[in-house]
Amino acid sequence: MSSPQPRRAAVLGGNRIPFARSNSAYAQASNQDMLTATLDGLVARFGLQGQQVGEVVAGAVLKHSRDFNLTRESVLGSRLAATTPAYDVQQACGTGLEAAVLVANKIALGQIESGIAGGVDTTSDAPLAVGDDLRRALIELNNARTLKDRLRAIGRIRPGSLVPEIPRNAEPRTGLAMGDHQAITAREWEISREDQDQLTVRSHRNLAAAYDRGFLDDLVTPYLGLTRDQNLRPDTTVEKLAKLKPVFGKDDPAATMTAGNSTPLSDGASAVLLSSDEWAAEHGLPVLAHLVDAQTAAVDYVHGGEGLLMAPAYAMPVVLARNGLTLQDFDFYEIHEAFASTVLATLKAWEDPAFCKERLGLDAPLGAIDRDKLNVNGSSLAAGHPFAATGGRIVASLAKQLHEAGSGRRGLISICAAGGQGVVAILES
Ligand SMILES: CC(=O)SCCNC(=O)CCNC(=O)[C@H](O)C(C)(C)COP(=O)(O)OP(=O)(O)OC[C@H]1O[C@@H](n2cnc3c(N)ncnc32)[C@H](O)[C@@H]1OP(=O)(O)O
C-alpha cells in the first residue's frame, strides 16, 4: 500500500463461525462449507442478500485440488449475487489480513466500492496427496483406451505407492515443525515458561470476558452446534498449565512450549466487510474503523539465522516510519498468538537496543508497549487458529474495539506466518 492514498478503506464489520478443535465439531465440514456459511452470516448481518459487492477475496492454507476456485465457489453457494467476482489468495497465517489489505487497496484506488475479505482452514479435512508413482499410474489408467493399456497402468501400482502423503505442519526447507522453530526462538530470547503460561491465561480470560459481555454477539454466528470457540477454557490457570509437558523443542531439558501455550490445530472461517465511506453511507452502515496502512516482511530463517516467526518485527518499523508513528502511539495491539513465546519474543525484540540497531537498522529501540492494551479480547491461544481465518477474526474484532472506544483511536495488528513472513497493519476509528 503506497502513501499517500486517494482514500481510506472503511471496515464495517465482520463475521466468523466459532473456531473448532481439529477433528471435532467441524470434522464433517469442508473449507467450502465453512466459508459459505461465514459469508452467509455476513450477508444476513449487513442485509446483502442478492447484492453484488466489488470483490470477495479469501483463501485457505490447506486446500484440496478440487478447491482450486474455493472463494468463487463459496460465493456461488452463498446468498451474495452470483455476479460477485471472487478469487483466492494465500500467505499462510497472514492470508486473512493480506486479503483485507488487497480489498482495502482496491477500494483506496477507487477500483471497487466494497469488498469482502476472508479466510478458512480445516485441519480435519486436510488434503491427502498420493505419491508420484501412484499419480502417474492413475493418470495413465484414466487415459487408457484398451484393456491392455489399463492392465499395464494397474500393473505399475506397487503396494508401497498406496501410502498417502499426509500434510505435515512443518517447514518444507528445514523439516522442522513450526513449534520446533519457535522453540529455538523462545530459547534465544530467554522467554520463560511462566511468562508464556501467564500470557495464555490472559488470552483465555479476555476471550471469555468478551463473550460474557456480548462483544462477540455481532462478530460470531453459531455453526454446527458451537456457539463459542471450542478451545476456550475460562478456568485455565498458571498452575494447571504448569503441569503440562513440553511438546516442542523437546531435545532441550529446559523446553517451555506445551499444548497450553501453543495454538491448537483448529477449523474455522472468518470474513470482513470493507467499503468506501460513500458506499457505507449509501447503505446506512456505520464505519467502525479505517484500514490505514499495512506492510509485509520476510526473514531468512533457513540460512540467515533469524527466527521463523520474527518477520513482523521487521515489518513494524517500516509501517510506523511511513505513518510518522511510534510503537507507543496505539490504543490497542493485536499480536497473533501463534505461540505465547512468539508474542513475547517479538515484544522483547522491539525493546532490545542491539536487535533494533543491528537487525532493524534503527538508532533507538522501538520500545515497550502497555501490556494492558494487548489482545484485550483474547487471541489465538484461546480462540484457536484456523490458519487463514485468523486475520479476519482480528481485523473485525479490532475494528469493533476501536469503534467502541470512540473516534480517533488507533490499533496495530501483527501476524506472523509460515515461510518466515509477517504482515502488520494499522486501523484507526
Ligand atoms: C504462524 C503461526 O501461526 S505458526 C502456528 C501454527 N500452528 C501450529 O503449529 C499448531 C501447533 N499445535 C499443535 O500442533 C497441537 O495442538 C499440539 C501438538 C500443541 C497439541 O496437540 P494435542 O496433544 O492434541 O493437544 P491436546 O489438546 O490433547 O492437549 C494436550 C493436553 O494439554 C491439556 N491442555 C491444553 N490446553 C490447556 C489449557 N489451556 N489448560 C489446561 N490444560 C490444557 C489438554 O487438556 C490435554 O491434557 P490431557 O492429555 O490430560 O487430555
From TrEMBL:
The active site is at residues 93, 385, 416. GO terms for molecular function: acyltransferase activity, transferring groups other than amino-acyl groups. Keywords: Acyltransferase, Transferase. It holds the Pfam family Thiolase_N. Residues 10-277 form the Thiolase N-terminal domain. One of its GO terms (cellular component) is cytosol. Residues 286-428 form the Thiolase C-terminal domain. Belongs to the thiolase-like superfamily. Thiolase family. PANTHER family: ACETYL-COA ACYLTRANSFERASE FADA2 (3-KETOACYL-COA THIOLASE) (BETA-KETOTHIOLASE)-RELATED (PTHR42689:SF1). NCBIfam families: AcCoA-C-Actrans, PRK09268.1. This is Acetyl-CoA C-acetyltransferase.
